[in-house]
Amino acid sequence: MNYKTYLFDFDYTLADSSRGIVKCFRIVLTRHQYLTVTDEAIKRTIGKTLEESFSILTGINDPAQLEAFRQEYRKEADVHMNVNTRLFPDTLSTLKELKQRGARIGIISTKYRFRILSFLEEYLPKDFLDIIVGGEDVKAAKPSPEGVQFALEHLGSTPQETLYIGDSTVDAETARNAGVDFAGVLNGMTTAEELQAYPHRMIMENLGELV
């Protein structure tokens, strides 16, 4: 595949932060006596906003309570997230190969941009990525196309020359809504069959298949 712009999801696409995510959710849920939520259930919400995830896990729909949960989670994430996050084995080699080919590279995530930056500074040169769009940068989270559209405008890229890579059906919907091609990677909790229900160029076992 020969695209000029590659936009990646972060969690379960470039990195496995499930250990940190589960830990932060577990602390907040236990604090509020939600003791029966499984790790599997938490992992299935990765890629959604924190408010959506807490609503799914607790059954609560009150915006004020969900916002309070989000604030508690963020404080725990400041402590536990990055130390419990690991890049997938093919991530760095794939990104560097695409960059060497002259491609523009970006990240579109519901995760906070500052947290992605603070994690990646250990692994990539400061200006390696052309753009990172985090949860704080958009009004509407994925599967809204806002983040992708913002990146395309910033990079001067067209939908036709852009590939969006993600691990979840939310990512597949995001690509479809933005009018860009989609490639799925099976690093997360979503199956190939679930991803194949959406328009896609390919479904990959790992990121290395991009290059």
From TrEMBL:
One of its GO terms (cellular component) is cytosol. One of its GO terms (molecular function) is phosphoglycolate phosphatase activity. Its EC number is 3.1.3.18. It catalyses: 2-phosphoglycolate + H2O = glycolate + phosphate. Gene3D superfamilies: HAD superfamily/HAD-like (3.40.50.1000), Putative phosphatase, domain 2 (1.10.150.240). Pathway: Organic acid metabolism; glycolate biosynthesis; glycolate from 2-phosphoglycolate: step 1/1. Transmembrane segments: none annotated. Belongs to the HAD-like hydrolase superfamily. CbbY/CbbZ/Gph/YieH family. This is phosphoglycolate phosphatase. It comes from Bacteroides faecium.
